[in-house]
Structure to design on (286 residues):
């Protein structure tokens, strides 16, 4: 007779216990398989496209200082309307003894702009026709130069400074420039060298005499074309940024006047400061 006990149905108790254990393991496996740990959904993070920031100058920071002189005023007065609309100082350099020279002088002053004398000086090569005695030359005596210059300046009261019209030969002549700058100093006027010659002595003479002085960095409109003028402005802005200062010279031309208005607005937004020539000269010494 076996030693293994049986239940009332005749099934041995160890077998029953094993079945119960197997059933328990199977049930645990079932629940583990069918009841997975719920996953917490991860909210996707929106990635914004990279945007290049607009770099603006800090408050109070000046990118560069610019002065603008526009030559050859006096042939018309229709362009006077631009003088009050630049939104910045722009000096009008007026040729003497033209039909509208004095009208432009009054227009510049009433617009709050500087009026300058665009003084005709002797060039090495002259392809234009001028009246006798209109151009100051190296062969004139000191007395003749002084008399002519005084007469011109007396006819244009309110002129604050002078720059040269042509003058590639005259600005190389120390005696002539000394005579001219002596009279300007006596009247408290500044001189701007248009830099029509690489051999100019104006800076040296002005420095020796202690007269307020500046020189051109860029001619804006040697080519009367939009692309060329805008490129010249860009060059002037570059110089002003690198050196701190740049004096730009253009002419009384419709296209130039329009682009000057546009560029002043554009460069102001980039932190450039536009100064009158008088303030420009003063700022360079600070």
């Amino acid at each position: 007779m076996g030693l293994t006990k049986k239940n009332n149905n005749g099934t041995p108790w160890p077998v029953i216990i094993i079945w119960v254990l197997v059933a328990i393991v199977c049930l645990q496996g079932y629940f583990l398989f069918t009841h997975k740990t719920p996953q917490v959904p991860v909210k996707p993070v929106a990635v914004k496209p990279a945007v290049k920031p607009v770099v603006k100058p800090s408050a109070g920071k000046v990118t560069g200082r610019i002065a603008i002189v526009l030559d050859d005023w006096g042939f018309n007065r229709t362009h006077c309307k631009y003088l009050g609309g630049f939104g910045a100082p722009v000096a009008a350099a007026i040729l003497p003894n033209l039909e509208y020279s004095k009208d432009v002088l009054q227009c510049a002053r009433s617009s709050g702009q500087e009026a300058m004398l665009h003084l005709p000086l002797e060039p090495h090569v002259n392809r234009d026709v001028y009246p006798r005695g209109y151009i100051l030359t190296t062969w004139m005596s000191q007395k003749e130069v002084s008399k002519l210059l005084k007469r011109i300046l007396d006819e244009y009261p309110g002129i604050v400074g002078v720059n040269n019209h042509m003058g590639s030969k005259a600005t190389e002549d120390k005696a002539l420039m000394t005579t001219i700058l002596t009279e300007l100093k006596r009247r408290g006027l500044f001189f701007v060298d248009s830099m029509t010659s690489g051999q100019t002595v104006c800076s040296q003479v002005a420095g020796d005499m202690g007269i307020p002085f500046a020189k051109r960095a860029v001619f804006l409109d040697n080519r009367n074309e939009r692309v060329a003028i805008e490129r010249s402005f860009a060059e002037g802005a570059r110089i002003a940024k690198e050196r701190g200062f740049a004096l730009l010279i253009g002419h009384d031309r419709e296209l130039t006047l329009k682009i000057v208005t546009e560029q002043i607005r554009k460069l102001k937004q980039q932190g450039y400061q536009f100064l009158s020539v008088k303030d420009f000269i003063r700022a360079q010494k600070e």
In short: The first strand starts at residue 64 and ends at 73. The longest helix spans residues 13-34. The CA atoms of residues 69 and 249 lie 5 Å apart.
